[in-house]
Design a protein that fits this description.
Order of helices and strands of chain A: HHHHH
Number of helices of chain A: 5
Strand content of chain B: under 5%
Distance between the termini of chain B: 41 Å
Largest sheet of chain B: none
Helix content of chain B: over 70%
Shape of chain B: globular
Oligomer: heterodimer
Largest sheet of chain A: none
Number of helices of chain B: 9
Radius of gyration of chain A: 31 Å
Number of strands of chain A: 0
Shape of chain A: elongated
Amino acid sequence: MSENTESVNELDALFAQVRDSEPYLDSSNFVDAVMQQVPPKKLIPNWVASGVDIASALLGVLVVMFLFGSEGLSTVLQWLPQQFEISIVSIALVSGGIAILSFAGWWAAENLNQ
Amino acid sequence: MNEVEDNKLIDRVVLLSDQHAFSELVKRHQSALRYSIRQMCGGDEALADDLAQETFIKMYSSLASFKKQSKLSSWLYSIALNVVRQRFRKQASSPSTVAIDNTELEAKPADEKPQGAELDQQQLHRELARAMAKLSLDQRTALHLFMHKQFTHQEIADIMQLPLGSIKTHINRGRVILQQELASWKESSL
């Protein structure tokens, strides 16, 4: 009985030793070999991407017409600035706006899916 | 292993087909998985790496079906075990017998066996893998996942898709055979 217990303890000790000394196997060649076999990324064809852009634009036009009635488009167009003044301040404002929007998009993608 | 980080990488692979994220996943899990498959294959490193590659490719193609309630490592082990089982089924007439190079194990003279405290770590891992090769694949896998990876019986049952009772039996029988192996090491070192 005690002999059996002793060998059980030895087995536990052996596995503990093996567990503590498990080697880290170098990843570089192995990862490369795996990645070479991974099927290539499926790119969206250009005509699909263009189709999505055009469909989005048409949808936008329809929404505007629905919200503002038959003269909606001309009303919205009147809101657009007729002329632009390029200055350091306007460039800084536009760049800052784009940077803030990009950061917000990146932050949302990183954090909102947890 | 950080599961939150794993889940982020999985989302990138699934939603964006981000191959860089997948290579990060492979990097994070490759060492542990390759080591475990080596244990399942009785220490045959080339075969184990081949099977580990196959495991990761299968993982890539079915990553969208991974349910995040379980650990990625558990899911990975279940894929690996299926890959190993398929390979052994192809190779051997007896499915649960290892089709590895056992001749080296059997032909190894007693004076080359590890000598008690003189075992260096590397040799210890190889010798354990060789000793484990005497067990059936299911015994070996269950014992490795329980004793080395410290999964619970239930987790092992889920990974191996076997009833809980069978897992306990595999572990107990595996222990008995390994104890006999241990005894023979001790005798040869006297």
